[in-house]
Design a protein that fits this description.
Chain B: Keywords: Amino-acid transport, Cell membrane, Membrane, Transmembrane, Transmembrane helix, Transport. The complex is a heterodimer of chains A (257) and B (291). Chain A is α/β, with parallel strands linked by helices. Chain A contains ten helices and ten strands. Helix content of chain A is 32%, strand content 25%. In chain A, the strands form two sheets. In chain A, strands 6-7-8-3-9-10 form a six-stranded mixed β-sheet, sandwiched between helices. A four-stranded antiparallel β-sheet of chain A has the order 2-1-4-5, covered by helices on one side. Chain A starts with 8 loop residues before the first strand and ends in a 26-residue tail after the last helix. Chain B has a single domain, classed as ABC transporter involved in vitamin B12 uptake, BtuC. A two-stranded antiparallel ribbon of chain B has the order 1-4. Chain B has a two-stranded antiparallel ribbon with strand order 2-3. The chains are: A alpha/beta (257), B mainly alpha (291).
Chain lengths: 257, 291
């Protein structure tokens, strides 16, 4: 593989635990250095835990490399300052801080990309003095995305950015991610398959804390039977309510690639 | 009327002392989840440091008094920072061990102070004005009450300004709310931990010097006796809330003073009952985060 196409993120035999409970087991996958890679799976299969394990937010073992350098032994703040932007599930804005304070806190150096953020999220400029806890869900998601986009990143880890949002806001979020993906690779956890179809080139599917499928996102979604078996919904279904997760062993091992 | 005024102002003074201890306790718990049972020792060491400089340079001088405040705050800050750096840093997320270590440090330092300064209270004096009284509505109020209240208000304003207008303050406020998300923004939140301990220790050290003037003596047990009420104040105010600590400090001290005078010395009982009522009706405290 040439350096040009070397993956930005490589995860090898990654396992993770929360309070002693195994939530991710021995997973391996790569994220290319351009475009959006979707991390998919039914509810509770370990997608968010995988993102948190990559960041070191939960106890983990295995190997994680960013741009060819091991990061699995580093604390979270060091991994992030290497250029990993994080948009967490449920936004996790600081409710008691203003919008401006939320953004200022996220600035990692003296040259934050404020102009880009102001262009992408003009509503946040108008609401800069408002407490983030009083914003709507969609506006909080904008704050969460803006915090990540303020900095030059090597990789964005985006966890369910459209969860619980109105269709109009979902479209806006997707558009923002599409714009961001032109300059930075994204590992995207997303339940809304319409959004996945619009954004993602590659797909990694988890079940029961294990990788059960990797390949093209478009090909996966085009195969309705495979999509239904792996994700519990049809490829054309834009439902945000996927079926609960079966154990990995319940899935046909042939789908592993 | 004069009794009410005297009780109210004395209560405010006592509340100011509680706040100087509770502010640090509350910030430390809010950011790091550490219940610091050694916090009273920061106060006691600050008080002894203030007394040492006073007896060496002339207790009746205002310069000495100001120096004793500065030294008390500095000693409290250094001891608190060392406590975090040498002991507590290794024990984050290990709450039982934190309690054991900080309780142990609290007991060991009391024994150390007794070894150095003896077990008997050491009586102190300050500038002449502090020893005098001022008449308000017929009540003769000791001037040291006004000094304690004045300094506590300054400390409250200083901490609020620090939290509001500095980057470290921003990190601390965010960290109290969601520490792991602060880390996920690329911030080494542990640097803020030491700073918060130091700020809390400085407030406690300052409180130690003022408490020694308020009560007229300093003893190795001074910090421990105030720490109990500071913990109650911190819980009632809401763990992690500076404003809650300030409001609860005043409320608890006033309740204690009035109950002591009007209900046959039941001030401590009234405070414990108030704590029970708050825990039963509002477990997260007046302004604390909901669990």
């Amino acid at each position: 593989m040439s350096a040009l196409h070397a993956p930005i993120l490589t995860v090898s035999t990654l396992s993770a635990r929360i309070a002693g409970q195994q939530v991710v087991e021995d997973i391996s996958f790569q994220v290319p250095s351009l475009g959006v890679t979707a991390l998919l799976g039914r509810n509770g299969v370990g997608k968010t835990s995988t993102i948190k394990a990559i960041l070191g937010l939960i106890e983990r073992s295995g190997e994680v490399t960013l741009a060819g350098e091991r990061i699995d032994g580093e604390p979270t703040h060091k991994i992030v300052t290497r250029g990993v932007g994080y948009v967490p599930e449920d936004r996790e804005v600081f409710a008691s801080l203003t919008v401006a304070e939320n953004l200022r806190l996220a600035e990692r150096d003296d040259n934050p990309r404020r102009e880009l953020v102001e262009k992408l999220f003009p509503d946040l400029v108008a609401r800069s003095a408002q407490l983030a806890g009083t914003l709507s869900g969609g506006q909080q998601q904008m704050v969460s995305l803006a915090r990540a986009l303020l900095n030059d990143n090597e990789l964005l880890l985006v966890d369910e950015p459209t969860k619980g949002l109105a269709p109009k806001i979902v479209a806006e979020v997707a558009e923002t991610l599409e714009e961001a993906a032109r300059t930075v690779p994204i590992l995207l956890v997303e339940q809304n398959l319409q959004v996945v179809r619009r954004l993602a080139a590659g797909a990694v599917v988890l079940a029961g804390g294990r990788v059960v499928h990797t390949g093209s996102a478009q090909a996966l979604l085009a195969d309705e039977e495979l999509t239904k078996r792996l994700l519990g919904v049809h490829g054309g279904d834009d439902s945000n309510q996927p079926a609960p997760a079966p154990h990995a062993s319940a899935l046909n091992p042939e789908v592993r690639q | 009327m004069s009794t009410v005024v005297l009780l109210a102002i004395t209560g405010l003074g006592l509340g100011a002392l509680y706040f100087l201890v509770a502010s640090g306790l509350s910030l430390i718990y809010g950011l790091m989840g550490v219940l610091n049972f050694a916090h009273g020792s920061f106060l006691t060491l600050g008080a002894f440091a203030g007394w040492e400089i006073a007896r060496r340079t002339g207790a009746d001088s205002w310069v000495t008094f100001l120096l004793s405040l500065v030294l008390g705050a500095a000693v409290g800050a250094v001891m608190a920072a060392l406590t975090e750096f040498l002991l507590v840093r290794r024990l984050y997320e290990r709450h039982i061990e934190q309690v054991l270590v900080t309780v142990g440090l609290g007991l060991a330092t009391v024994a150390l102070f007794e070894g150095i300064w003896g077990t008997d209270p050491v009586f102190i004096t300050g500038p002449a004005w502090l020893e005098q009284t001022t008449s308000i509505a017929g009540a003769r109020i000791p001037n040291d009450r006004f000094m304690v209240i004045f300094v506590a208000v300054l400390v409250l304003l200083a901490i609020v300004a620090f939290l509001k207008f500095t980057r470290f303050g921003l990190i601390i406020r965010a960290g109290v709310e969601n520490r792991s998300m602060v880390t996920a923004l690329g911030i080494d939140v542990r640097k803020a931990f030491t700073l918060v301990f130091a700020v809390g220790g400085a407030a406690a050290g300052l409180g130690g010097v003022l408490a020694s003037h308020f009560f007229g003596y300093v003893s190795p047990l001074l910090g421990g006796s105030l720490l109990i009420f500071a913990f109650i104040v911190t819980v009632i105010g809401g763990l992690g809330s500076l404003t809650g600590a300030a409001i609860a400090s005043v409320a608890v001290a006033l309740l204690q003073q009035f109950a002591n005078f009007y209900a046959g010395g039941t001030g401590d009982l009234a405070v414990v009952l108030a704590l029970a009522v708050v825990l039963l009706t509002r477990p997260s405290g007046l302004l604390g985060k909901k669990a």
